[in-house]
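Appendix B, record 7
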Amino acid sequence: MSIFSDRSGGKASAAVGSARVHLGALSAYGALLHDDTLSGPSPSKALSEAEFSNSWFLTGVEILVLIAWSIATGFAYYRLALRQTGDLTVFVATGALVALTSCAFKRLSRSEARIVARRKLDPAFQTLAFWCASFIILSFLVFSFHISLEVSRGAVLVLFFTGLPVLSLARGCATKLFATHLYENSLRSSDAVIIGCSQLALADAVSRFLARGSRAPMIVKIDASSTETAWPNELERSIKETTGFAHKAGPGAIYVCAQDFPEDRFRTLINGLQIIPRAVRIIPDAVTAHLMSFPVRNDIDCMSVEVQGSPLTNNQRSLKRAFDLLVSVPLVVLLLPLFAAIAIAIKLDSRGPVFFRQTRLGYHGRPFRIFKFRTMFVLEDGADIQAAKKNDPRITRIGKFLRKTYFDEFPQLINVIRDEMSLVGPRPHAAAHDQVYSSVIANYELRQHVKPGITGWAQVHGLHGEASASDLVSRRVEFDIWYAKNASIALDAEIILRTLAVMMGRGIVEGARSPQKTDSEVTRILGIPIDLIDMQSAVATITSWSQDNVGRYVCVRDVHGLMRAQNDPALRAIHEEAALVTPDGMPLVWISRLRLGKIVGRVCGPDLVDALCAASSKERLAHYFYGGKPGVAESMAAALRTRFPGLNVVGTLSPPFGDLSPEEDARIVKAISTAKPHIVWVGLSSPKQEYWMRDHVGHIPGATLIGVGAAFDFHAGEVTRAPIWMQKHGLEWLHRLYSEPRRLWRRYLILAPNFAVRAIGEQILPSVRAERAATRFGKIPHETSERKESSD
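Structure tokens (predicted):
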């Protein structure tokens, strides 16, 4: 979906129209998004770090580091493996060639991105591709010029496998050095001039400048709503005042707040400011700032913002179709004996046809007739279809077996061959049910933007069962819509692997912690219960607790805390009694997905704070922040209020260092209870915060205590979080280790490998895992995940 006109009505049209106005101004007067002429959403440190990461200086640093590392690895390989010295010239030439080609690829890709709007590639994937391409070129040149005898393949392989991590580390160190020393020093010595017509935007910009430690900026207020006759004088006065400030001030830039500016007057102001020999940067309004995070396209001779891309390109659709045929045709041939045996069993069991055929709606709502083995005495296909239920008397004896083993779905391979379905996609519902669901479930038709499938994203998350259950159908459709928006070949492969795991019995839920806790299913990792939950489910569950007056606490569990609990029986008991234990670390998420294929996503402290604060305005939740160093809780609350206007913060408190006396503890509990919060965010070190929540959960009426630890420092701006791509790929630990090596080296270099060894052993030896868990915690309830009867 691209935004280039305001076709819709109401508030959405106004917002999009405002975004189009300012994006038009940005495209007309901003040469490039990262140029000195144009800046991002705010004059932030992150933007300047991005400018530094694109600089030639950093490219030079990368080249020197690679050459030095090539020399080091070359000498080390020759010395340790060959007992020789090696040729310094060869090592320098190898490192220089790899460095120059990989850096050239990066520079060329950035230059192309400036000219042609393209779909953004994952940075990690792009870096890896450039790295591999550099070594392919190196190999081609070595063999083309017959110099393979001078270049050691072993030394080249060592450089290939170790060079990229070293290069990434050097790049991060250089960027951090720039951010902490060079850039911050330049900020303190620079003078900025801010011009705008919105008092709110000006105040926000000034607070951002002061928060980063720079000098107080000079402000020029312009009346953009003046009459046509008064506007020329107002414009001239503003430019003259800005020019005067610029002449008196030291080096710095001019920032223009675009909020509430009419388009024509905004363009005129930008033109007028170009006579001043300073960088002019635009601070967009909130809508435009949000849109700037999306790709910009120029495929229709005008700029458009792609807020939603097509999930599959034409090439990907062709590849998906080829994969469907390559899998389904051989499967049908191989399964013909099984099909024949099932057909005979159906005929002997009850009267009626072998196949059940029913009208379903497929791609773009086109009707088709689905193939299934008949499992019922009835053959309903009309306006009134009664969905199957558990212990439904209409199900035949052989039908019960077919439904339990999923064999009744196999004939849908015929629909796949006929291009009516795909192996992976949303499960098609009966046409009569589609009419009902589309009238009560918002955006229901979006699931028909892709072909229906035999298995899907909802099914591998355990969302199958009675189609008459409205809550289950809504949740299933929610997952179907997510798949329709994010469909890819890689996602299809993941769904197929999960489906196979479920069919082979790996998708069994390992038990629930306690019936009086949450309704979510759990798995046990090293004996500790972890809820099978994602961020959306966690937010829905916690917000629903605000309706009662029951005190609860939530443990946000990472690998470090889980390992601490191995040798701490009291901490294990705290997790057993917690209302919710969310998977914080990506290893816990991966293990849960591998075992169960259930609804599970990373629910870490900083992201949970964001999600619940975003939902607070609708749910009217009151928040209390308890923890952190002196002033951190207040800074965190202030930052969240800025990001989430209307957030109800009823109090903040940073406790004194060390153990509290009974009197101090009583005063703190009384202060928190008096504020009547729905959620108390606890930011103490682990396991101190878990013990605090256990001891105080019953003393703060109706409050949910959530231990989020380092989230206080992240949201207060005390500590910088890892980039998004590192968080998604489970590499946030590496960023934290680099940021705080003295404090965290033991956690990540000793505890984490210990966890990996234990987790692998637990996965390989499930019987040992079950026996050990039963010994520690008593018998674990084990629920067999049996398929519920369903019309699909």
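Remarks on this record: Residues 518 and 541 are 8 Å apart (CA to CA). The first helix runs from residue 10 to 29.
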